[in-house]
Design a protein that fits this description.
heterodimer; A: mainly alpha; ABC transporter involved in vitamin B12 uptake, BtuC; 15 helices; 2 strands; 75% helix; B: mainly alpha; two-stranded antiparallel sheet; globular
């Protein structure tokens, strides 16, 4: 083999089936691949353990239940990719629903109310973005502040009651798009759109650079501030969207809506390989959300006490974090080893033109 | 500001600037003044403010948060964070309440509660030092686990009605002021002294400024960090246990939201979120000022929900102002 060549690159250069198989196998070794395998295994185990699992009703219901944190996770993924964090998504979720319910009860037509709800998310996201970029406040503290404020507004507006939506809204949730509930469809749509955006839309790709190193991104000429604000706005908007869907589905806006969302929405991308240091993909985040959805479905089907949910989420978070750290360590060790090897090779073979 | 360039006697503007820097640096002084001004204002606005009963309520409200804020301030100084304090507070509280209600003797029960705090702190410490998890993530996980365990362990029932001996811990009054207040005062004074003088704790400042340099300088970062997490867990558990004793009951929501309140109070008191700066006294004053505001709002009948909104606004304002107002010299 020539210098710099490995079996992998030879395969890749040759192209064809072998190369693609190798790349696919390598992908399975990444975080996303592992989560996909775990998902498949878990689904198989569930199908065996419970006759109800593979029924259409259960799958649709599970999908709809998952939609809330899956859609919001797309937004959080964007924020995480830029190296930030958004703790206010749960409150945007709740507040959007409340605003929509309140305005609809005052006779505002559905589309306007929904638009208002999304605006709420956009505004909260914009506040987050501006405070974090222009005022250089720690994202953790800033989003914690907006979270408390928005949650407070939710409390004020609901006064611990639920706000019922006018009864004629029921048709909205029951309309099936392609034979699937709207939450389901929107979930798939948001995952696909986010993933495509991250792959092909230049500003979205710049998120990765910002996550890697803000200073370097700025030096390259990326408008870091504007893009980060965009990330937070999108995060807020998506949280609001799933809040609206949830409110429509349950027929009323609760005060408690969105409170456990925060944990799930940080956990999903993390499980799927989106690290705090930036890096990852929307599809990975979706796989993480799917894993969570499967686990919660399992808890329901197998009759494990619902009380254990939070504990489980915490344990998973820690587990995922630990695994992430181990992978990072292994990566560092591997790159160190490769560097040592290439240095040794360089010592043995002086560089020749043409390799 | 080069000293060499200033050969003339300091002008008024320089003196003013130095005063400004002093006030910002010595956040405790500023807060103390704020506190006094607020007291004056509130006593004018409401005839009930300066009553003995109101003051007692105020001190009591301060006591629990003040105990917790000490632990978290030290961690923030080191560049870490601990959002599991609320969960530790609630978990220790409910375990102790459950044990003592079932007939377990009081003091061993309290000891177990404190041990739980130590255990959770140790877990956090190990996750952060040994496994190199980011502090936020590690404590988020621990918070979730133990918050959830509160539900599991209690079967979603709050514990109402604890034995008299346990209640005594929280409700005994000396000179008309409850015991937890005295406990808090002692802890605050000792902690402030320790943070200023004890070599061990002062190392946290170095760790906060630059962890790698601290390590290179020979500071046992892992040991100091773990010790501080244990301290934080211990203090949170203590606060929770005292709260349960004082109330005579432990609700499932015990300690919910405390983590945000104490972080706000700490930042208000001059603790830099990036680490390397902060005092226990300042954090204590932060807790006092926040408690004064809440107390006043309760007194004049502000809706409980609007209070939460206000706290959120105050949090953001405080942090923003802190950022804007800190002159380059101190930053």
């Amino acid at each position: 083999m020539q210098r710099g060549e490995t079996m992998n690159s030879i395969h890749r250069a040759r192209g064809g089936l072998q190369a693609r198989a190798v790349t696919a196998l390598r992908w399975l070794g990444t975080q996303e691949g592992v989560v996909l395998i775990i998902n498949v295994l878990l689904a198989l185990a569930l199908a065996l353990a419970s006759p109800v699992f593979l029924t259409r009703d259960n799958l649709l219901a599970g999908g709809v239940a998952m939609a809330a944190h899956a859609i919001t996770s797309m937004g959080t993924t964007l924020v995480l990719l830029t190296g930030g964090i958004d703790l206010s998504v749960g409150s945007s979720f709740g507040l959007a629903g409340v605003i929509m319910a309140e305005t609809m009860c005052r006779g505002v037509p559905f589309w306007a109310a929904a638009a208002l709800g999304i605006m709420v998310g956009v505004i909260i996201g914009w506040i987050n973005g501006v405070v974090i970029t222009k005022l250089e406040i720690n994202p953790f503290i800033a989003t914690m502040g907006t979270m408390t404020m928005a949650r407070g507004l939710v409390n004020v507006m609901t006064q611990s009651r639920s706000i019922r939506l006018p009864a004629d809204c029921a048709y909205l949730v029951n309309t099936l798009i392609f034979g699937l509930p709207p939450s389901f469809v929107l979930m798939i749509a948001s995952v696909v759109v986010t993933d495509l955006l991250l792959r092909y839309w230049r500003p979205a790709r710049q998120f990765f650079y910002i996550g890697g190193s803000r200073e370097h991104a700025r030096l390259i000429g990326i408008n870091v501030d504007r893009l980060q604000i965009l990330a937070y706005v999108l995060s807020g908007a998506l949280a609001a969207l799933s809040g609206l869907l949830f409110t429509l589905r349950s027929g009323s806006a609760h005060q408690q809506a969105g409170i456990e969302l925060n944990m799930k929405v940080i956990l999903s991308p993390y499980l799927g390989g989106v690290g705090f240091m930036g890096g990852g993909s929307a599809f990975g985040a979706f796989l993480g959300a799917l894993l969570l959805g499967l686990i919660f479905n399992a808890i329901q089907l197998l009759g494990i006490a619902v009380l254990w949910q939070n504990v489980l989420v915490g344990v998973l978070l820690l587990g995922a974090a630990l695994v992430g750290i181990f992978r990072m360590r292994r990566e560092m060790q591997r790159s160190r080893r490769e560097r040592r090897l290439s240095r040794r090779e360089a010592a043995i073979q002086p560089a020749e033109p043409g390799g | 500001m080069s000293e060499i360039a200033q050969t003339a006697a300091p002008s008024d503007s320089t003196r003013l600037r130095r005063l400004y820097v002093l006030l910002i640096e010595r956040r405790d002084v500023t807060l103390l003044i704020t506190m006094l001004l607020l007291s004056l204002l509130f006593s004018r606005l409401s005839p009930y403010y300066l009553t003995m009963m109101n003051m007692r309520t105020l001190f009591l409200a301060v006591a629990f948060n003040a105990i917790v804020v000490i632990g978290i301030t030290i961690l923030i100084i080191g560049g870490y964070n601990d959002i599991s304090v609320g969960a530790t507070y609630g978990f220790a509280s409910i375990i102790v309440a459950m044990l003592i209600s079932e007939g377990f003797p009081t003091w061993p029960g309290v000891a177990i509660g404190l041990l739980i705090g130590v255990g959770i702190g140790l877990l956090n410490g190990i996750l952060v030092t040994r496994f190199h998890l980011p502090a936020f993530l590690a404590t988020l996980g621990t918070m979730s686990v133990f918050r959830g365990l509160i539900w599991v362990v209690s079967g979603a029932h709050s514990i109402v009605g604890v034995p008299q001996q346990y209640k005594m811990l929280g409700q005994t009054k000396i000179l008309g002021v409850q015991l937890p207040v005295y406990i808090m005062l002692v802890i605050v004074i000792v902690a402030d002294f320790m943070l200023r003088r004890s070599t061990f704790l002062r190392q946290m400042f170095y760790i906060g400024i630059n962890q790698d340099s601290a390590e290179a300088a020979g500071i046992p970062v892992a040991r100091v960090t773990t010790a501080c997490y244990i301290l934080s867990g211990l203090l949170s558990a203590l606060a929770g246990i005292l709260d349960g004793a004082r109330l005579g009951a432990v609700y499932i929501q015990a300690g919910l939201g405390i983590e945000f309140q104490v972080i706000t109070a700490s930042v208000l008191g001059g603790t830099a979120l990036a680490g390397g700066r902060g005092t226990v006294f300042g954090a204590f004053l932060g807790v006092v000022v926040m408690a004064m505001l809440t107390n006043f709002f309760n007194l004049i009948g502000v809706n409980m929900y609007w209070q939460a909104v206000l706290v959120g606004i105050i949090l953001v304002l405080v942090v923003v102002l802190d950022r804007l107002v800190t002159p380059k010299e101190v930053r």
